[in-house]
Amino acid sequence: MQNSATPTHCPYCALQCGMNLTPAPDGTVEVSERADFPVNRGALCGKGRTAPAVLSSRVRLTSPLVRSEGTLVPASWDEALDRIAEGLSRTRAEHGPDACGVFGGGGLTNEKAYTLGKFARVVLGTSQIDYNGRFCMSSAAAAGIKAFGLDRGLPFPLEDIPKSGCVILVGSNLAETMPPSLRFFNELRENGGTLIVIDPRRTKTAEQADLHLAPRPGTDLALALGLLHLVVAEGRVDEEFVRERTVGWEDARAAAMAHWPEYVERITGVSVPQLRETVRMFCEPESAMVLTARGPEQQSKGTDTVGAWINLCLATGRAGRPLSGYGCLTGQGNGQGGREHGQKADQLPGYRKLDDPAARRHVAEVWGVDPDSLPGPGRSAYELLDALGTDIRSLLLMASNPVVSAPRAAHVEERIRSLDFLAVCDVVLSETAALADVVLPVTQWAEETGTTTNLEGRVLLRRQAITPPEGIRSDLEVMRELADRLGVEKGFPTDPEEVFEELRRASAGGPADYSGITYRRLAEENGVFWPCPANELAGAANDVAGTTNDAAGTTNDVAGAANDVAGAATHAARAANDLAGTANAPADTANDPAGATPGAPGGDGPAPAGDLGDAHPGTPRLFLDRFATPDGRARFVAVSHRAIAEEPDDDYPVLLTTGRVVAQYQSGAQTRRVDELNAAAPGPFVELHPRLAEQLGAGEGDPIAVVSRRGRAVAPARITTGIRPDTVFMPFHWPGEGRANTLTNPALDPTSRMPEFKACAVRLEAVRG
Ligand code: SF4
User: In which residue ranges is the amino acid composition biased (Low complexity) (predicted)?
Assistant: First the structure.
């Protein structure tokens, strides 16, 4: 491998910061600033800066492991792969294909996520595949599709934030989760804009806000409704925007008007004057944004909650306009791309719906299989984990550690232990891998090339910088070997670029259209925003539009197409027609790089870096002319407040909310192996108000037991006035006694199937001597 600096991206969160990697003579890898990447301009948080430590960690897996007489012991690759193929084959023969489960992760590259979905459906023939991204942003994705016809985390680049007039940040602690992104908000305030942070805790992010609202956990929906009520009452509705670009306003308005500010104050704990001030700050500037993260999304009403915030944007004309809009701050490194290409229970590549006949035909053709052979939608992530050992007897798991990260984790661990067979691909022996029958050691970010899609919808090229250690193989090689052993000898390439070329064809004409993106372009342009249709794939894409429109009983009339491919049919049909060059005026074609981006839902195009010829420039900004719905209008969704699934009572009188700390990432499987990060964040804690601490008789650092209906966790007290007196907070990165997810409630959102991580009832007990 080369000894010069390789420009690439961080392995962790969805900011996907750029960095340079240089192999050092002693075998380690040095990280250096990569200022050319516009998202972080060289800045990194501690996790990114220390990421190479996991590459050479002394606990790195370097040999396959198989369970023998109860113990995991080293084995050859052939033995380990044979064991997995046997385990899956036996389950399939004895219980049918749906008894084989597959669980993926939002850290997998697009190529791996795509191949994993294909492997599950083509090789195993199972419908039972989902991934840990379901626990991340699925409520925002569902709400975005309902309202706009399309889910792309941010419909605009981060660089738009400083130019906006006001940003409401709902349930996001960027100072801990994505520190380099704070500069966009600092610049916003330097430019005269205002930042409003909504969080039950006075986080480091909230400390930097012009206004901090601290609602009771689980009441963000009521809060948004109260704000919308005031928008109407104060005459701040953008009537023209509502009339011209939306539908459903009257029902949404009526629902909001039932939520009087005083009623909302009682539910949320946010005072009426604070509500009025929020409305003033949001409505007075010409532009404003609402950005949500896990706080409002990880609730059993997460989809409605995000929908209420979108309603606020639509009613005030703050969507589909420059420097305004709603966006979701996706969390995991490839949380965006990971949900677009087929590892989700209900989706096919290109963000197509699995139950859409046209989508099935298109993808089946790319895969060379009969569309009728593809299984239908399967269970969502928690439901899949809950079915382990009963309906699902064997599991293949990649890039995930549900023993730590799933809700009601002790139950999930018990379900995993009850499996007939478990195979895990990972880089270290995670808590979940430790329960496996076979563990395969796989390559990491710097040891392989692949693409990710960051929270802006910017597709990026992560480049290989070093040679993997002896004995390690890539996830793509694993799937190829297993496919061979399970009787599917073709269709599973191991070269990432070859996989991406197939992904381009599979996504062509879909909502998340990558067909115009190539590795070469990604390298030359420093990333490309989807949708980005391609001319050379016009035939395939036009087939999609044609068949979809035929199925809908219409012609190729874009506005009339009743496509339900993730609700973005108009886009799909329009893109396909653009690609085919049919029936489009010149100004509305993909070949007009200077004009409005065609084939994209009302977006604009960037000035491309270099001459792209007639290539599509990509779509940094969506919805500027039209939303991705059949009629181009956004949908209001009439929603009302409802309680969390488990309200406090006499037995469990306190609310628990969970979250992250800056030095750890997700389940901590990687970051807990980095000395510097462990020194900064050595273990879990219980953050609580002095009033609660006094009631317990607990001092700073004293062990506190937090007990919910699902279990008990113990961690030292961290006492602060920066949290509501009715709420405690625990970070969820650790296993064992302090595992926060032992306590969390798997009550699911009816639409997104998101568990209610963010609010459940607990009681506190002092732990004596
Ligand atoms: Fe950037 Fe996120 Fe990596 Fe930190 S963890 S360096 S914020 S991509």
Answer: 583-599, 606-618
